[in-house]
Design goal:
It is built from six helices and 15 strands. The chain is of the alpha+beta class. The strands form four sheets. The protein has a seven-stranded mixed barrel. α2 runs antiparallel to α3. The protein is globular and about 55 Å long. The termini are far apart.
Length: 408
């Protein structure tokens, strides 16, 4: 018998050729609960001998999974690690790998997509595992608007709205992609923004009724429009006042919507390997913290996030763009978080803006991200006796980031 029939080459599964990076959110209903991790050279994800291409089952810890009524509601994904070939970087306590992942991304289709994500693995120190665990807690706490470009303004079609008429208040930022759809105009666009949590509705009927009751109705002015930053790109605002013939005028060329860029990568989950008894692996040394260097032979958890470019080199980025990167720290602090390690290696740059398709992005409009939150803090998680320290930590971190970015 020819024994070669039992040999298989699975190297193509670990290849990143023609594999696009995942840069959208995974629908909540499809976020993997089970993750089967394959490693080309098994040594990082298990604490014992394993055969090549034998996957190890991981389960999601964050975001915390809800109850499952049927097995069909248990989304599964496969992750293919090859740290030697696909490394994105090696830090003092961890390794980051770019890895193909196979999963469903469309709730209306059973088809599975092959995309790449950034995977963070802890080194063999108890402190490294503690850092990865802390970073996962912060990613799980980040609000969604820190992970995507947003438009913090109201998209309203103005149709003879009296000054006395109430204007809906903005409850949360609008994803830039949604705002762009609204600005394209046309009926039916409003429902998309309403579903996004933003009031975007006609007031025509209300205005008509109100105007009949008032002898001299007053016309209101549209909301103030902010001149866009370079990060925003040529996004047009749709706010307008209807004319006598009900044809809204075109927005002035100078009117732009300010797009707030994302601050941190999108979060795709934090996963733990399973023990033989089916429970998630968890281990830590009592009394140890993120700075502890005790050698351990624990299987690493995995943190999955969006790929966001390369470290910033201040002298190859102009001052205006470096200030935009610095602003990310201000927004992070305003949201109640610190990064904890404000070095250039933890500030990433890539072509932008991210609100446009990937093939339309350019290095002339760069996008920035902050990464590595193993030493970060969330104000909401602090003990009462150190809560007053947060503002000082944030101020110190901002100054360190300023020095790293060579901003005077």
């Amino acid at each position: 018998m020819d024994l070669s029939i039992f040999s298989h080459d699975f190297s193509h599964l670990y290849s990143l050729d023609d594999v696009p990076p995942l840069d959208t959110f995974i629908p909540e209903s499809l976020l993997p609960r089970d993750l089967f991790v394959h490693e080309n050279r098994p040594r990082r994800i298990a604490n014992g001998p394993r055969q090549r291409d034998t996957p190890m089952r991981y389960v999601r810890i964050y975001p915390t999974p809800g109850p499952v009524d049927r097995p069909s509601q248990n989304p599964v994904a496969h992750l293919y690690l090859d740290p030697n070939k696909n490394s994105l970087g090696k830090g003092n306590h961890s390794t980051v790998v770019r890895a193909p992942m196979v999963l469903r991304l469309d709730p209306d289709s059973r088809a599975r997509s092959r995309v790449s994500v950034a995977v963070k693995l802890a080194d063999n120190e108890c402190g490294a595992h503690a850092m990865l665990r802390q970073e996962a807690k912060l990613y799980n706490s980040f609000p969604r608007h820190l992970m995507e470009d947003t438009v913090p303004s109201l998209c309203v079609r103005w149709n003879a709205v009296p000054a006395e008429a109430s204007v809906p208040e903005v409850q949360e930022a609008v994803p830039a992609a949604k705002a762009a759809k609204c600005e394209e105009g046309g009926e039916g666009r409003e429902s998309e923004l309403v579903q996004a949590g933003v009031a975007c509705a006609h007031k025509a009927d209300e205005a008509q009724t109100t105007s009949q009751e008032r002898s001299e109705p007053a016309m209101s002015s549209p909301p103030a429009v902010v001149q866009g930053e370079r990060e925003s790109g040529p996004v047009q605002h749709e706010d307008s006042i209807s004319t006598a013939n009900n044809d809204p005028p075109q927005p002035a060329e100078s009117e732009k919507v300010q797009v707030l860029p994302a601050v941190v990568p999108k979060f795709y989950g934090y996963y733990a390997p399973l023990n033989p008894d089916g429970t998630p692996f968890s281990c830590e040394h009592e009394g140890c913290d993120v700075d502890s260097m005790c050698y351990v032979d624990w299987p690493t958890h995995v943190l999955l996030v969006e790929e966001c470019g390369e470290p910033v080199h201040p002298y190859s980025v102009d001052t205006e763009d470096r200030r935009k990167c610095l602003d990310l720290f201000r927004r992070l602090h305003a949201a109640g978080f610190t990064q904890g390690s404000a070095y250039r290696r933890n500030m990433l740059i890539q072509p932008g803006p991210l609100s446009v398709p990937r093939d339309e992005r350019t290095v002339d409009l760069p996008s920035f991200r902050l990464i590595d939150f193993g030493r970060g803090e969330a104000r909401s998680m602090l003990d009462a006796d150190v809560l007053d320290c947060f503002e000082g930590w944030a101020a110190s971190e901002l100054e360190q980031a300023r020095r790293e970015l060579r901003i005077s």
